[in-house]
Amino acid sequence: MSRRARRKEQTLRRIEEAGWSLFTTRGYEATSTREIADAADIAAGTLFNYFPEKRSLLIHLMQQRIDEAMHRGLDTLAGSSLEEDLTHVLDVLTQCYAKERRLSRVFVKELLFTDGEQRAESAAWTFELVKRIAGLIRAAQGRGELDPAVDPLEAGQQLFSAHYFGLVTWLGGTIPSRAAHQEQVRASLRLLLRGLGRSAA
């Protein structure tokens, strides 16, 4: 890595650390871009070179943590059945959101209303999560749990959508507790998996 690349990487790390610290202590709305720049010891213009909007930084930070949670979930699978694997991975993802529920609510709201380049990047990021779920489906097909004719990506999108709908309703307060949210997602998974199992009939 060149000296210039190292400096850029170091600046990015300072921005990430400053942004996360301020967002989690002061709150997203109460934190200004000027405060983030000051905490990162950079000029405001430098911050905008990395993140043109405050929400861009929040989305970046949350996506980092969700990616880490996905890796963690996949690395700790029991591998006994698709239902158990999906339940485990989605529970780990939910735990990630639960750690900073306030920020998670803002993240989900901001993610839904991105546009332009940010929308394309967010869609690509979400698709990567779906592909990880599709990988679990392929493994289950290899074990004979699911109809081999089922398209793993299409099934992955449906299963991820069930998780996301449950997440939005829980973060929004429609579902009163995390335990109720988990039960709703598990019930949705069981229903969808029964349908996938019958699809060859």
In short:
The protein has 201 residues and is an all-alpha fold.
N-to-C CA distance: 56 Å
Shape: elongated
Order of helical and strand elements: HHHHHHHHH
Largest sheet: none
What is the CATH level 1 assignment of the largest domain? Mainly Alpha
Instruction: Provide the structure class.
Output: mainly alpha
Integer tally of domains: 2
Quaternary organisation: single chain
CATH architecture assignment of the largest domain: Orthogonal Bundle
Show unreliable segments.
Answer: none
Radius of gyration: 19 Å
**Proportion of helical residues:** over 70%
Strand content: under 5%
Please tally the helical runs, counting DSSP H or I stretches of 4 or more residues. Answer: 9
